[in-house]
Every structure is written in structure tokens, then in C-alpha cells.
Amino acid sequence: MRNNTPPNWHQIEHPVVISLKTARHHLWGNVAVYLGLFIIELLGAHWGHSQALRADAFNNLSGIFSTGLLMTGLFIASRTHDNDLFGAPIALKEQYQLGPRIQQSRFRFETIFTLLAGTIMAAIGLEIIIKGMMTFATHTPLKNPGTVAGLAASFSFIALTILWAFNHYWSRKFNNAALTAASRDTFTDALTSLTTILTILITVSFHLHWFDNVISIGLGLYILNTGAKIFRESSLNLVDYFDPYLENRYQHRIAGLSVVRKVIFLKAHYDGNLIMLRVTISVPSQMTAIEITHLIQTINQIMWQEFGVMETDVMITTNNVEYN
């Protein structure tokens, strides 16, 4: 349940920065596990002659890149009281003030590095698809996967299941978006390893030499699709795209207030994972300054309580005057 009082910028920034730092510390464990599994599965794929296991190994490699880039973005986003912004100088008066402009810019680095992670994932998926297609096109002799491939895939499934439980626990404890995303990704990767195990079993049991390679192409398509989705969502956030359905809900809620004549302008955007809103409304000219101030506070409170909008910048117009 949210607090009835809408947060000011200091209240917004502090828990977000703490959340970002907490997420970054816990994601180190993900990097270590994914790195170890990549090496084990890659060696297992080589010794066990399994293309599906090789694709699963590169799926884990994409997890290393995506997690590493996300951690870099989280590190930049969580920095405060600095004299630079990613190497660019910051005005002296802003270096020691927790003002929203610079920190909101830092929050966007999380989105930028997530976009880069999506690009790398898509490239890895494309490489797996091309290799699988080339294997069929060149009529490369295919072998049944060996026992070592099955053991490597089984170890990966168990390790990722444990990591998923770990991420799930901490994401719920800290209510952190980055850890929640990591938990979902790890769960999907565990299912991918389970698919690899079943593929190896089917290939060996029924002597379907081609089946292992077909599944590797399927895993490549999955990685490519996941990377493309991440790239798309991050790109839309960076160009200030916002779901028009949600904006319509915001507009209808504000327009429903008795003293609001009309919502003239409304635009929402993301700063990292924070929703920011700008709105201009028309009110009766008889309203006093105190009533206008109260209305602005009410709108901020409603948007925070009902929609989780962190900051609502309200401009109010009457026939002759504008208020911020």
C-alpha cells in the first residue's frame, strides 16, 4: 500500500539509488554462475558433440553480457555527488545538490546499457542460427551427443534453478525491478537447459542425428527474439515513447476531477524505471492561489497513489493566468 503523501524528489531519489546499488551487488553472483556454466557447457558441447548444448552455452554467455552491461548501467545510475556525468563535466552548483535533472539523466543509463545488452543477445542468437544452417547446408556429419553433454546440461539446469530461487527471494525482499528481471531471465534459462537435456535424451534414444541441430537453431531463434524485444523496449523508452493507453487513463482520471475544465496537454515518459508526467489543465478563473496549490498537490497524490507516477509536473491555466 502506498503512502498517501506524494514523494518529493529527495524521497524519490534515495530509495531508488539504494535499490540500484543493492541490485548491482546481487547481480555479481549471476555473472559468476553464468560464466562458470558457459565454460562447462561449451566444453561439454565440444566433447559431447551437441549443437543444442553449444547453443545453450552461448545463451548463458548472452546472460553474462546482459548482466554485466546492466550492472554498469546500474553503477552509473546510482552515483550521486559527482563532478562528471559519464566523463562530461557537471556544473559546480549541481555537483553537491541532489537535484532531479542530473540524477534523472543518470537513471537513463540503465536503459542505455540494457539496449546494448539486447543488441549483443540478438547478435549471439544470429550466430547460432547461421552455424546451425551451415551445418545442414554443408552436409556436415552429425554425431549423437555423448554422456558428458547430458551431464553438463543437467548441471546447468540444477545451477540455474538454484540461482532462480536466489534471485526470486531477493527480488521479493527488496522489491527491485532489476532483480525481478534477473529472476525471470534465470527461470527462462533454466527451462532452456531443461529443453537441452530432453533434446540430448531424444537424440540418443532414437538416433535422430539431425534433431540436436534443429533444436540448436530453435534456441538461436529464441535468443534472437529475446534480444530484439529488449532492444525495441529500450529504444522506445529512450525516445520518450509511452503507452497511449496508460496516458489516456491518466487523462481521464485528471479530467474527472470536479474543478478541472479540460486537460489541455498530457505527456508521460520514463527516466530509467521511473514514470514522470507533465500535464496542463484548465480551471475556473475564480479559483484562488491556495485552491490551485491544493489542486496541484491533489493531482500529484492521485497519480502517485493510483498509478505509481513518481513526479507530476502540473501547469494550470485560467483565462488570463498560468500557474506551475
Automatic annotation (TrEMBL):
Domain Cation efflux protein transmembrane span(s) in chain numbering: 31-84, 108-239
Keyword Membrane attached: yes
This protein's UniProt keywords: Membrane, Transmembrane, Transmembrane helix, Transport
One function term, GO molecular function aspect: monoatomic cation transmembrane transporter activity
UniProt-listed InterPro entries: Cation_efflux_CTD_sf, Cation_efflux_TM, Cation_efflux_TMD_sf, CDF_Transporter
Name of this protein: Cation efflux protein transmembrane domain-containing protein
Location within or outside the cell: Membrane
Domain of life: Bacteria
Similarity-based family: Belongs to the cation diffusion facilitator (CDF) transporter (TC 2.A.4) family.
TM region positions: 27-45, 57-77, 111-134, 146-166, 187-208
Any one annotated GO CC term: membrane
Lineage per the UniProt record: Bacteria, Bacillati, Bacillota, Bacilli, Lactobacillales
Pfam families the UniProt entry points to: Cation_efflux
Topology versus the membrane: Multi-pass membrane protein
